[in-house]
Structures are given as C-alpha cells and as structure tokens.
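Task: sequence design from structure.
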C-alpha cells in the first residue's frame, strides 16, 4: 500500500488535505541565506552549491528570472573559506556599457568627464579576498567582456586612467537567465570568457518544476507578509499548483502581496482571493504544469492497477473516495477506459 503522501517528480504531494495552515516548517538550509524547499530538484542544486563552496572555482548560475540565483550566490559565499571576507555584487544589466569598466575596475582622478576628484576603487578591489557576484553577466558589453577576461587570466586590475596594476584575489560567481553557450555561438558573448566563468555550472530549477515547494514557499510568504498563519483551501492549493509561474519565486511573492492588499483580514485563502489573471491562466489551454502532469500520471497508474475500482484506488493512494473523484474530474480522467481493461 502506498503511504498517504505520493512521491511525485522528487516531491511529496499530499492529496488528502482539504485545508492547510500556512506554516509547513520549510527547509531552511542556511539560517543566513534561507533557500526554502524540500523537492529533489532544489535539494540537488543546494548539494552542488555546498560542494562547490569548498573549492575556489568560478561558478556560473543559470536559470530563469526570479528563481533565486542571488540567494545561491550568497549561499556559496557563506559556506566558503571566504565567508568572513567581502561579498560584492554588481548587476551587469543595470550599468551602462560605457561605465561598466570603471565600475568593475575603478578609475583615477580625471579619468573621464564627471569623474570624482579623488578617483574611485572598483568592485574588484572592494571584493579583494572575498567573492564578486556578477549578476546578469549575459548583458555585459563585448568590450567589458574582453577586459574581464584579461583580469581573470592575469588576476590583476588596472584602474581607468592609470598605468599601475594591482593584484586581486577574488572568487567569481556569475549568473544569467540566458543560454551563454548559444549566445557565444551567435557572437553575442565571448566563448573564451564563457569557459572561464563556467568552471562549475549550477542550474537553478524553475518553480513550476518544484512541485509541493510551491505550497511551502507560498506559506512562507503568507506568514512573512501577513504576519500570521492562514488556512488555505484545497481549491486555492490547486490554483497554486496549476499555475506556471513565468516570474518564478518573485512572482509567487508578488501574488501573496496582492492578496494581502485586497484581503488583509481573511482567515482562509480561497480561490477567488487570487488575482483574476492567475485564475484565468490556470483555466486556459496552455502547457500544463509538469508537476501536475506527474501527479495525474500516478493517479492513472493506480487506476490501471485497480481496473478503475475507486475504493481500491483510493486506499492505495491513501485518500478518500470523494478526494479521488475530485482529482479525476479535475484531471479529466476517464474511469471507463480502465474498467474496460478488467
């Protein structure tokens, strides 16, 4: 007999909860940098990050926007032997291409119009002995890429407007939501720099692949934003699990904020409390949430084994008949096709 929890795509799917309190003791893998979740996908990424932290290789974090690449960069730094040294970040997409070199490597007095009279140290100097996180590295200009490559090769920087070089000891962690290998083939990103940065690659999973982590993260944001625990109806859980989250964790957090603004005093989160476009998106014919596809397949496998017998199937799944019927209806599963095989 199966347990009351179904293991689906590396995640635990609890099918027999009609309501759920918004506090599920999520996995906080680092008290300083909480990467929350228990799915196989996120735990695998965390395990690789922890192993990577012990060595001084360059790391490239890849994943869609909003998956938490910045958290992983801090997690690696906090578990490395550089944890007591500076952790410096720069968003390469937010800096104009004509300023990226001075931001990274600094400049001397009078190096360009508007330069500080005292000059300024760059991010590399600020991160000396520590970690430099290059966010959105795929948006760096080709000129900036060339200068960065030279620094990584020589391990020394030269301020803009100066002839003096300085040795720097910096661990580089980069992040991008682009396919840099493809970008390098298209000529948009230097191939030699790509291989320099990609000594270790950690792919951060999209939220839609993380199954029940969606509920855990939702609970986390609810308690953080509302300041209290709140019940969640089963229909609300279905909305959460059936949405595709193009904005990933950041979008999930925004959903909770919008619920809070419009329904601050609620004692249970229900389907109609979600933003209209979220509800509509779960009803449209679009690529299904892969987690729910796996859940549906497991139910169909059990129905096949039980020849469509609802009583036997519900026992094997560890849920009651009513819940199983609701799942069958929600997934548009035909019971008759399993009974005909009996």
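Answer:
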């Amino acid at each position: 007999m199966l347990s009351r929890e179904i293991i689906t795509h590396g995640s635990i799917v609890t099918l027999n909860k009609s309501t759920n309190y918004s506090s599920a003791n999520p996995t906080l893998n680092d008290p300083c940098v909480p990467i929350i979740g228990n799915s196989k996908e996120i735990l695998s990424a965390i395990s690789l990050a922890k192993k990577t932290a012990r060595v001084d290789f360059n790391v490239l974090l890849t994943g869609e926007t909003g998956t938490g690449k910045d958290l992983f960069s801090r997690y690696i730094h906090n578990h490395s032997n550089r944890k007591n040294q500076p952790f410096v970040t720069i968003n390469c997409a937010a800096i104009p291409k004509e300023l990226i070199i001075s931001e990274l490597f600094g400049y001397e007095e009078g190096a360009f119009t508007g330069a500080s009279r005292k000059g300024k140290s760059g991010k590399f100097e600020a991160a000396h002995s520590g970690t430099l996180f290059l966010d959105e590295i795929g948006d760096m200009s080709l000129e900036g890429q060339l200068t960065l490559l030279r620094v990584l090769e020589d391990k020394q920087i030269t301020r803009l407007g100066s002839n003096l070089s300085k040795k720097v000891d910096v661990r580089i962690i980069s992040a991008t939501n682009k396919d840099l290998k493809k970008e390098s083939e298209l000529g948009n990103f230097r191939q030699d720099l790509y291989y320099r940065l990609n000594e270790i690659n950690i792919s951060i999973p999209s939220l839609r692949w993380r199954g029940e982590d969606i509920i855990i993260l939702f609970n986390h944001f609810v308690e953080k934003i509302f300041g209290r625990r709140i019940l969640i109806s089963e229909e609300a859980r279905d909305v959460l699990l059936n949405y595709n989250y193009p904005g990933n964790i950041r979008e999930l957090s925004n959903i909770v904020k919008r619920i809070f603004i419009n329904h601050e005093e609620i004692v249970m989160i229900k389907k109609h409390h979600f933003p209209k476009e979220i509800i509509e998106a779960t009803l449209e014919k679009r690529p299904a949430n892969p987690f729910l596809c796996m859940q549906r397949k497991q139910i169909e496998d059990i129905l096949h084994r039980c020849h469509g017998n609802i009583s036997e199937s519900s026992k094997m799944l560890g849920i009651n008949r009513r819940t199983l019927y609701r799942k069958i209806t929600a997934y548009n599963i035909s019971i008759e096709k399993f009974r005909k095989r009996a």
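Residues 1-29 have pLDDT under 50 and may be disordered.
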